[in-house]
């Protein structure tokens, strides 16, 4: 008998009888060898080419519309890929690549994907010429090590405290240059530097992001965004007649509702007379009076509650001059507890004066002509928590400004951790490309081709920047490459803003050396993983 194997190889036992390894194998699709390499590389390359036009200060934004009709306009690589709902498994690796760059560094999410796409493009060309992909993967790894060593040799240490943190502002402005807030990037860079320095532990070189809160409110201009020492809650006092400002506040933080206790089991209650109803009403009133008295006796004069209030309780709180806020979120409750030194109280019986927190001022402020109100908690006793209040023409702009500011804050944090910088504007990638191409000639064997291909891939970043800035990319790249080699200056890059100089040091375009290292290493790791796949077993068509 001849066995016809359509898609999946069969295994045979010692008697020669065939048996199936995978269940429902007839429904599965199998792609092997070079075909698998090509499909995987093309899928990943397609995703990378989407982000090319978003790179640099002249990069374009992308509009993403969700199935519900929500609109996001952004040029943040991680956000674009996360919201795109990519289904191809290999392309998803690039989504994870961008997310890991975002989690670790916070900036460079577009660049890392463009770089990975460029390396894969070189790998595809090599595969077509008959180079074995695993050899290419090892060559790329070697080239990455050369590039990282070059980074260590060209990095410049900067004094972050000099000229009232001028270099920190320049690094933040580099991160903000390609964002929608670029018209007031000075202001946003100041906000980022102020907020990070306020909460940073300079001795330990550590920044606690939990202490920086970013609140976005639509209305006003981007330039109206401001830095606030204290915590802003997107809430207002629960009763409109409560006092709007409390000084020397003693804050009581509750995670139990101002409501009568409810039995856990099913119950029925029969009311047969007016007396019974009055009795029940008095009993309920007594619950509320007891609750309010327990809070008042502790000495508290502001109540922050995670749950809602009954109208009866709200009325009593107002009469007892106890301003209260309801439905405060869990994350905000924790931040308030850290900042004011309060203990979170789960039951009314546990309210004690020593569990209260202290704040200098708690006040309600209103915006413009709308009814938008927020609570401001300042001069907290225990913590230096800060808030950046972002204003913008619309909800979409506010959301994007929030993402931009977070990127800038991450950049400033990275500079405090490691104050070494390299040039932006594609200068660093070009310097690494020149070094890798030089070293390629010293390598024996087939890996030499992969190392040289890696150098060509690195040039994709300055090439894309030049293209997005409206220059002739190949002509422009060859000129700045010549300048770098002649001047031996690794800060020569693409003059995207046409300021008349290609020296990124003079322009003040700096990037953290950690960000660049992470980009090179993460992109190389993902490419290596994709190139090592030679057999795909998928439940449906794999295209």
State the end-to-end CA separation.
34 Å
Q: How large is the radius of gyration?
A: 30 Å
* Averaged pLDDT: 83
Oligomeric category: single chain
Low-confidence stretches: 1-7
Structure class:
alpha+beta
> Could you describe the largest sheet, including whether it forms a barrel?
7 strands, mixed
Q: Please count the beta strands (DSSP E, at least 2 residues each).
A: 21
Percent of residues in helices? 40-55%
Residue share in β-strands: 15-25%
The number of distinct helices, counting runs of at least 4 residues, comes to 17
Categorize the overall geometry.
globular
Describe it.
- By secondary structure, the protein is an alpha+beta fold.
- Helices cover 46% and strands 17% of the residues.
- It is built from 17 helices and 21 strands.
- It has helices at residues 33-52, 77-83, 89-104, 109-128, 133-154, 166-176, 185-199, 274-297, 311-319, 330-340, 395-417, 427-440, 447-458, 460-468, 473-487, 504-507, 513-531, and strands spanning 11-12, 18-19, 29-32, 62-65, 71-74, 156-157, 200-201, 206-207, 212-218, 226-229, 231-233, 245-254, 302-305, 324-325, 344-345, 357-366, 373-380, 386-392, 420-423, 510-512, 535-538.
- The strands form 7 sheets. Strands 11, 12, 13, 14, 15, 16 and 17 form a 7-stranded mixed sheet that branches. Strands 6-19-20 form a 3-stranded antiparallel sheet.
- A hairpin with a 6-residue loop joins β16 (357-366) and β17.
- It is globular and about 95 Å long.
- The model is unreliable at 1-7 (pLDDT under 50).
